[in-house]
Amino acid sequence: MKILRLGGSVVIALCLVTSVYAHHSAAGVDQSKTVSLEGVVKEFKWANPHSYLEIEVMNSKGVAEIWNLEMMPPTYLVRAGWKSNTVKVGDKVKFSARPMKNGDPGGLFVSITLADGRTLGQTAPRGGGAAPAPVYPQQ
Amino acid sequence: MTKLRMGRVGMAVLVALNVIIAASDLSAQFQPPGTLGVLAPANIAKPRPKAPFDITGTWLHIGGESERFDPPAGFKLTPAAQKHFDASAAAVKEGKLYRNDIGLCWPAGMPIMMTRVWPIQMIQLPTSIFMISELMNSLRIVYMDGRQHTDPDIVVPSFNGESIGHWEGDTLVIDTTGFRDDHHWIQDRAGIPASDALHIVERIKMQNQGKRLEIEFTLTDAKSWEGDWKLTKHWDRVDDRDIAEVECLPELNEHMPTVHSPDNIREN
Questions:
Q1: ipTM for this prediction
Q2: Rounded distance, CA A81 to CA A122, Å?
Q3: Structural domains counted in chain A
Q4: For chain B, what is the domain count?
Q5: B9 in any annotated domain
Q6: Which CATH number do you get for residue A32?
Q7: How far apart are CA A51 and CA A54, in angstroms?
Q8: Is A1 an interface residue toward B (CB < 8 Å)?
């Protein structure tokens, strides 16, 4: 019975979580933090079900590390102003992300500021329209 | 004369038996050679009552209700399912995730494929309904041409199961069986597994002048839980949406930090 009661509360908690246009969970991400960094684009993949960005960042110890940023699919990025050639390898950019809990470089993409000063985010799931910031499930 | 008559009767019985045996072979997955498939023009052209509604369109599960298939209050799992449920609850307590199979490119399967955030396109014909979810382009075919479920001893288990549909008044009723029992979840985030005993009955109604679908799911799985679980969910018609090729590729997943997080507890 105890187990069942605990299970019920877990399920209720899960029900309260907001959905995201994704195919998997973001359990390893610290949703309470947003980090802002700058670096050089190493790779940008325009793909379903997720696009991604890899950005080389110099960490506080002066060592280069690659930040792996998980993004929404192109359907939503297009609505936020993205194209497949918006960023190119070698571009210097600033970006913000929800970081991994374990401190690994990487996380969920929030926004990017390009060399020309434009800042692009990604639109929220369902129905279109720009959203201030994506909401990812913590589950 | 008497012998001849008996012989004729015997022949007639044999013919009748053959017809019965042939009819029982008309299963969804294994049709006898020469049987018309659902896209055969001659099958589509057969006279049938007019369908009460046309489900053809692009549908998106509404945002206002959970995409998850949560168990009812007081639910009771079998020991086999409880093991997964407990492990999942323990993982969630630690901020981790138990068995992120969909993230690892396993198909969402039924019933999750119907609500997994991505749009689902449906094409209705007199013989069948094709459903294609944008997520992993998962395909579901609902047979509407009178065929029966495949013999459980020869059915090839699948994540979306084998669906047979019929009309009851203004309601489309779909009966689905023949499921895979591994890497297949009813509630993936709560660790509630589906087994090969899963049976799903959907009662589908069209609402709001064809702009909304309502599906009442009845989920039964004697190997995973006791009794029937009933859930009702809704979809909106999204005429300004199409679907694209969406493959879940290991190569792409390598770049997804959340998929490779140590907080994802994989199979032992």
A1: 0.72
A2: 8
A3: 1
A4: 1
A5: no
A6: 2.40.50.140
A7: 10
A8: no
DSSP characters over A106-135: EEEEEEEE-TTS-EE--PPSSS----SS--
- For the segment A4-18, the average pLDDT, to the nearest whole number, is 37
Domain carrying residue A50: 23-120
Q: Report cis status (omega within 30 of 0) of the bond before B111.
A: yes
Our CA-based measurement puts residue A9 at a distance from the nearest CA of chain B, in whole angstroms, of: 10
Nearest C-alpha in A relative to B245: A48
Partner residues linked to B58 by β-bridges: B121
In this prediction the pTM is 0.81
> Can the peptide bond before residue A49 be classed as cis, meaning omega within 30 degrees of 0?
yes
Rounded Cα distance, B40 and B147, in Å: 14
The residues, any chain, with a CB within 8 Å of residue B147's CB and separated by 6 or more, are B26, B27, B28, B31, B164
The domain of B148 spans 57-67+74-265
Q: Tell me, yes or no, whether A129 lies in a domain.
A: no
- Contact list, B261 vs chain A (CB under 8 Å): 27-29, 100-102
pLDDT digits (tens, 9 = 90+) for B61-117: 998 898 899 999 999 999 999 999 999 999 888 888 888 888 888 999 999 999 988
For the cut 50, the answer to whether the pLDDT of residue B205 exceeds it is yes
Q: What are phi and psi of B248, to 5 degrees?
A: -95, 110
For A107, nearest residue in chain B (alpha carbons): B257
Q: Is residue B18 part of a domain?
A: no
Hey, is B17 helix, strand or coil?
helix
Domain-embedded: residue A8: no
Higher pLDDT among residues B75 and B9, named by residue: B75
CATH number of the domain that residue B171 is part of: 2.40.128.20
Task: Give the amino acid at B151.
Answer: D
> Is A55 within 8 Å of chain B by CB?
no
From the list B74, B86, B262, the residue facing A28 with the nearest CB is B262
Kind of pairing, strands B162-168 and B171-177? antiparallel
* Residue A99 lies inside a defined structural domain of this protein: yes
What are B142-170's pLDDT values in tens digits?
999 999 999 999 999 999 999 999 999 99
Model confidence band, residue B29 (pLDDT cutoffs 50, 70, 90): confident
C-beta separation of B123 from B39 below 8 A: no
